[in-house]
Write a structure and sequence with these properties.
This protein has 6 helices and 7 strands; from the N terminus they run βαβββαββαβααα. By secondary structure, the protein is α/β, with parallel strands linked by helices. The chain starts with a strand and ends with a helix.
Length: 194
């Protein structure tokens, strides 16, 4: 198993989307980049990429923000996996999850995509569903009104914005723990009720 990890944050490029629920993946990899003092640069894979180490002599992190739209995240993810000679077991995708309440994080490997088109495209491009996912809860729209698609393209509520920095930090912590320890350890820490 390689000591390099590709961490792909999902989102949509451009200022119109930058603070929406759908872009929580971008926010988390930006936090990770700040922690390892790495800067994002354009890459021929059609992603912004930042590289660094998780601690002195630690695993190498390749942090990516695909610059295709969310539903086409597979191409950049597969290109980076090939460029860094990684298998799917060294890929972590950080994404929004409407089926998890806001302020909660769940981790898993493989399984279904739950209607998430970004994940579906990545599974297709990698030829497997067996990659890690850090699922960041953004909740469903309140009540029965409003579509999920519209919900994830809206900014967080005023109340949620107060908690958002902590959620981003927790999700970044979950990625780090997954890499430095293992999936079960990270699940035991982050799946426990708050």
């Amino acid at each position: 198993m390689s000591n390099t990890w590709l961490v792909v944050g999902l989102g949509n490029p451009g200022p119109d989307y930058s603070r929406t629920r759908h872009n929580i993946g971008f926010m988390v990899v930006e936090e990770l980049a700040a922690r390892i003092s790495a800067s994002f640069r354009s890459n021929k894979s059609r992603a912004l990429v930042a590289e660094g180490r998780l601690g002195a002599g630690g695993p190498k992190l390749v942090l990516a923000k695909p610059q295709t739209f969310m539903n086409l995240s597979g191409g950049p993810t597969a290109a980076l996996t090939k460029f860094f000679d990684l298998s799917a077991e060294n890929v972590i995708v950080v994404h929004d999850e409407i089926d998890i309440p806001f302020d909660q994080i769940k981790l898993k490997i493989g399984g279904g995509e739950g209607g998430h088109n970004g994940l579906r495209d990545i599974s297709r491009a990698l030829g497997t569903k067996d990659y890690y996912r850090v699922r960041v809860g953004v909740g469903r729209p309140p009540g029965s009104q409003g579509s999920a698609a519209n919900h994830v393209l809206k900014e967080f509520s005023t109340v949620e914005k107060k908690e958002l920095p902590l959620l981003i930090q927790d999700a970044a912590d979950a990625v780090e723990l997954l890499i430095s320890s293992d999936l079960l350890t990270a699940q035991q820490r982050f799946h426990a009720p708050k």
